[in-house]
Amino acid sequence: MMPAGLSHRRAIIVGAGQSGLAVAAALIGQGLRPQQDFVMIDAAPAGQRSWSSRWHSLTLLSDAAHSALPHHRIPGDPARHLRGDEIADYLDDVQRQLGVKPVWDVRAISVERRGTGPTLQLSTTVGDVQTRNVVCATGAAAHPRVPAWAASLQLPGAMMHSGDYRYPRQIPPGDVLIVGGGNSGVQIARDLLGSHTVTLSVRAHRGQLPLTAFPAEGSARAWLRRRRPEPVFGDSYQKLRRAGVRVTPAVTAADSVTVMLADSTRIAPRSVVLATGFEPADDWLPDPVRTTPARFPSTAMPGLFVAGIPRYSRPGADTLDKVSRDATIIARRIADRP
Ligand SMILES: Cc1cc2nc3c(=O)[nH]c(=O)nc-3n(C[C@H](O)[C@H](O)[C@H](O)COP(=O)(O)OP(=O)(O)OC[C@H]3O[C@@H](n4cnc5c(N)ncnc54)[C@H](O)[C@@H]3O)c2cc1C
């Protein structure tokens, strides 16, 4: 059943994460009222933001000063690095302060234009709604990226993507291979070190910088974007090695219970955690929007906007301190539309 009050709003924001909230804040700044002029839907169960489904010991790379939405300061030391559950609580507070009441458990399935007019039809799991503006804020790091070889593995222990990893007891005792030497792989290796025998498989050696050096802005941020592969912040491979982690080359293939590494050695891990990254949740957008190079803030469908996914916007659009830059432009455009 379609929840009352979703249809015929001036805008529907799809996604109640930091990107959706940044757009909500910017629309309020343009004089639009939550629940009256715009509504927000989210596919997750009530209040389950993506941060609450990351591993429990996750520490943000950005410091508190650069993890806040404008006008919503994070209390305490601006140089501290919040845990995932703390940033989830912070976003709950922002939502309350804005007076936004997301409609949870409603997934957007597709969006299309009705005729030649300004009306868009958003199809959701609870029915179709009509509106003039739809903002896709469904996340740049949403769907696990799983390497093809992973399908061949049948391990005696567990196999999961970092998106499903929460805490060490999920992994049966014994040895575990973490695939991916980026910031997620390094943090998960540290998390499992006290309870498991950990191997970290890395494709290319990455430089290391202390967490305090995570570039917040300006030329340092631009430098980081150009660096391939991106350095790891926090523990270096060397430090992890000293703590007992075995660091190996990349996995190139797998066969039942063994994986083949780039140096042609084979190992037979009991469990595997794939820290191999994510794809954006833009699969519900129409093909022309996904395939036409974006001209931010517009997309190939007038009235459809995308916030928080760099492919449709600019580098950094998916970070806590940069998403509001795009949200402000999108809100202004929505306010100006008839
Ligand atoms: C491990 C990790 C660590 C990170 N660390 C940092 C950091 O330190 N600093 C930083 O600035 N950034 C960091 N980021 C990047 C970014 O800040 C986060 O990914 C952040 O959660 C993005 O917020 P978002 O609102 O764009 O997306 P999300 O938080 O993913 O929110 C999207 C919402 O959309 C909903 N949704 C998805 N599909 C649909 C649909 N079809 N219909 C309805 N709802 C839908 C989801 O349920 C979700 O609630 C990190 C990312 C990851 C993965």
Automatic annotation (TrEMBL):
<protein>
    <submittedName>
        <fullName>NAD(P)/FAD-dependent oxidoreductase</fullName>
        <ecNumber>1.14.13.-</ecNumber>
    </submittedName>
</protein>
<dbReference type="InterPro" id="IPR050982">
    <property type="entry name" value="Auxin_biosynth/cation_transpt"/>
</dbReference>
<dbReference type="Pfam" id="PF13738">
    <property type="entry name" value="Pyr_redox_3"/>
</dbReference>
<dbReference type="GO" id="GO:0050660">
    <property type="term" value="F:flavin adenine dinucleotide binding"/>
</dbReference>
<dbReference type="GO" id="GO:0004497">
    <property type="term" value="F:monooxygenase activity"/>
</dbReference>
<dbReference type="InterPro" id="IPR036188">
    <property type="entry name" value="FAD/NAD-bd_sf"/>
</dbReference>
<keyword id="KW-0560">Oxidoreductase</keyword>
